[in-house]
Amino acid sequence: MARFSPEDRKTIWDMREAGVPVKRIAKHLGRQNSSLRKFIADAGGRRPTPRERSSLRLSLEEREEISRGLAAGLSIRAIAEGLGRSPSTVCREVNANGGPKKYRALVADRAACRRALRPKRAKLAQGRRLRGIVERRLEAKWSPEQISAWLASEYPDRPEMEDERNAEWRDASIGKPPRWAEVRT
Asked: Is the distance from CB of 167 to CB of 149 less than 8 angstroms?
């Protein structure tokens, strides 16, 4: 399926909100009726709300300042002070995006936007091995805390084997079907 340009998307939603039938919108754009219907259905039938970044999150401009500060040899504390941010915020940002020598503002900003997307796929839905281990322990009547502690001691250097200690375990321990159950084939 061919993608719609930003101008086409705006036209689609403007015409849709004006009550123009899908067939007429497709004809106006010179596109297939079915591709337009799929586009509308994928969006839930409504114009998507534009994403807005919270003021609590670092902006691209702040990330550029961090990058320039690192290039100039400034300390994390000095960069943070210049931004009016906590040193721990700047330190986490730098470490999450390649460290002081590899940090690039645009790459870091795109990665942050990608990480902010919701909903996220549960770690237990992604990893077959982790899911199998957790399911076997739950069937053996282990508590979520026991499984969590065991995973931490058994796989200390394997982030893909870290558990999700919050919603996954709450759901499993109170008898709700866990989020990964619907992924099973």
From this structure: no
DSSP string over 20-81 = --HHHHHHHHT--HHHHHHHHHHTTTSPPPPP---TTSPPHHHHHHHHHHHHTT--HHHHHH
Most confident of 38-47, 56-65, 170-179: 56-65
Identify the pLDDT of residue 164: 54
Residue 177: is the preceding peptide bond cis (ω within 30°)?
A: no
How confident is the model over 132-164, as pLDDT tens digits?
888 898 889 988 888 888 888 888 887 777 665
Extents of the domains making up the chain: 8-42, 60-116, 123-183
Residue 50 in tokens: 């534009």
Q: Buried b / exposed e across 55-66, counting CB within 10 Å, b at 16+? A: eeebeeebbebb
Which residues are CB-contacts of 170 (< 8 A; sequence separation ≥ 6)?
Answer: 144, 176
- Nearest-CA neighbor of 37 among 27, 49, 22, 24? 22
Residues 185 and 177 sit within 8 Å (Cβ to Cβ): no
